[in-house]
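Researcher: Quick test of sequence recovery. C-alpha cells follow.
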C-alpha cells in the first residue's frame, strides 16, 4: 500500500509547466519545483496579455481529485497577492477544448483547495484575463 501511494503521488508531481508569458518585474521562479514546494514566496507569474494561463501537462492523463493553488506573495510594489482572482481552473484532454472545474478566489497567505471529484485529463491550467500568478499547483 505504501508503494502504491508513493507511485500515485509521484505520478501527480510529474508534469511539465508552460505559461502564456512571464512578468519579469515580479522575479517569479516559473518552475514546476517552485509550484510544488509549498512556499508562498515562490511560484509562477504571467503578465496581462488579455488571455493568461499557467498550464500543467502530464505525460498521460492522471485521475485528479483535488488541486491546491495559493496566491504568490512577492514584492507588493510590483505584485498583488490577489492577481488571478476571478480566473478559473480548467482541464482538457486535447489542449483545445477547456472545461471549468473551479474558480480562483485568492486570500493572502491561504491555500485554496479545489475539489474535482476524480477527473482524468492530461492538461490542467489556471486561466485569467489579467495578471495571473500562483505559488502552488498541487494535484491529488
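Model:
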Amino acid at each position: 500500500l505504501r508503494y502504491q501511494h508513493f507511485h500515485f503521488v509521484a505520478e501527480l508531481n510529474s508534469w511539465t509547466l508552460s505559461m502564456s508569458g512571464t512578468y519579469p518585474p515580479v522575479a517569479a521562479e516559473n518552475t514546476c519545483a517552485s509550484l510544488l514546494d509549498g512556499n508562498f514566496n515562490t511560484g509562477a507569474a504571467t503578465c496581462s496579455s488579455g488571455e493568461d494561463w499557467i498550464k500543467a501537462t502530464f505525460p498521460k492523463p492522471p485521475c485528479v481529485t483535488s488541486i491546491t493553488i495559493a496566491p504568490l506573495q512577492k514584492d507588493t510594489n510590483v505584485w498583488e497577492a490577489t492577481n488571478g482572482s476571478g480566473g478559473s481552473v480548467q482541464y482538457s484532454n486535447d489542449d483545445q477544448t477547456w472545461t471549468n472545474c473551479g474558480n480562483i478566489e485568492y486570500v493572502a497567505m491561504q491555500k485554496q483547495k479545489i475539489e474535482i471529484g476524480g477527473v482524468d485529463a492530461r492538461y490542467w491550467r489556471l486561466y485569467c484575463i489579467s495578471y495571473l500568478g500562483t505559488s502552488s499547483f498541487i494535484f491529488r
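Residues 1-8 have pLDDT under 50 and may be disordered.
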